[in-house]
UniProtKB/TrEMBL annotation:
Example of a GO cellular component annotation carried by this entry: anaphase-promoting complex
InterPro entries, A to Z: APC8 (IPR007192), EIF3B (IPR011400), TPR-like_helical_dom_sf (IPR011990)
Top-level division of the source organism's lineage: Eukaryota
Protein name: Cdc23 domain-containing protein
Keywords: Cytoplasm, Initiation factor, Protein biosynthesis, RNA-binding
Organism of derivation: Nyssa sinensis
PANTHER family: EUKARYOTIC TRANSLATION INITIATION FACTOR 3 EIF3 -RELATED, EUKARYOTIC TRANSLATION INITIATION FACTOR 3 SUBUNIT B
Length: 259
């Protein structure tokens, strides 16, 4: 993941090396001396900068040059999503949405307090195999399945935005800024004398790529598995075990994500 700003997203903490990298990649592209992976890297930098139109063009050039770079395809897909994921914010009655489950049915409705009754938006049977969960900003609705999780969004259709592979996932959580998704599972050992095996995955929400994972026995964690987003306005992800508390950096041995 490329960070153009500081750990709290402050615009005055710009990574100058990436600014020079963007300039260098732009020159190579203009001269026609850049390869497909250079185009992919250039597209990532442009995307993080917010230059999505140019990023889309550069990523198309990358996959045309080398179609087997699946990460480039994923980034391109996220840029080509035309669904307005914040459409519910434009409701002229300023209503909130809520979701209910009854049997095999899951339904999203408007909370129409003025008329004292809900207004149906979208209903689907067997939408999830476990539970559903809103993201912190209400952009996505997550569903949980035997093979992993999925997030959905849109105006009234709730199209699937991305899948996240994690067999037998038990719990999920979003980072406060909705940039990452954490999935958790605990697996019983084949030998009764052994402890449960814990698996934690941290996904890039937009691309579905695993950014970091933690695996080990439950004994290595404080209480099964303790994962928490740090308080205040930070979105640091911490991991606690019996030896120490990790609040790491994306390039360090532990973990630090801006969410």
């Amino acid at each position: 993941m490329i960070e153009l700003e500081g750990p709290l997203g402050n615009s005055d903490a710009v990574n100058r090396e990436l600014v020079s990298l963007e300039r260098e990649l732009s020159t190579l592209r203009k001269n026609g001396t850049i390869d497909s992976f250079g185009l992919y890297l250039y597209g990532l930098v442009l995307k993080e900068k917010g230059s999505e139109n140019l990023a889309r063009t550069v990523l198309v050039e990358s996959v045309n040059s080398y179609p087997w770079n699946w990460n480039a395809w994923s980034e391109l897909q996220s840029l080509c999503t035309t669904e307005n994921l914040q459409h519910w914010l434009t409701d002229d009655k300023a209503r909130d949405q809520f979701v209910i489950r009854a049997g095999s049915d899951t339904e999203v409705l408007w909370n129409d307090a003025r008329h004292l009754k809900p207004e149906p938006i979208y209903k689907r049977s067997f939408w999830t195999e476990s539970f559903v969960q809103w993201s912190p900003l209400g952009t996505y609705l997550a569903t949980v399945h035997r093979q992993g999780a999925a997030v959905w969004g849109g105006a009234t259709s709730f199209n699937r935005f991305m899948r996240y592979a994690h067999p037998q996932v038990k719990l999920i959580d979003f980072s406060p800024g909705e940039r990452f998704l954490v999935t958790y599972s605990s697996h019983e050992p084949s030998n009764p004398r052994d402890t449960h095996r814990v698996v934690l995955n941290i996904f890039d929400l937009r691309t579905g790529k695993v950014m970091r994972d933690f695996k080990g026995s439950a004994d290595e964690f404080a209480i099964g598995a303790l994962i928490t987003w740090a308080g205040f306005q930070s979105s640091r992800l911490s991991k606690a075990n019996r030896q120490m508390l990790f609040i790491g950096h994306q390039l360090a041995a532990s973990l630090y994500w801006q969410g």
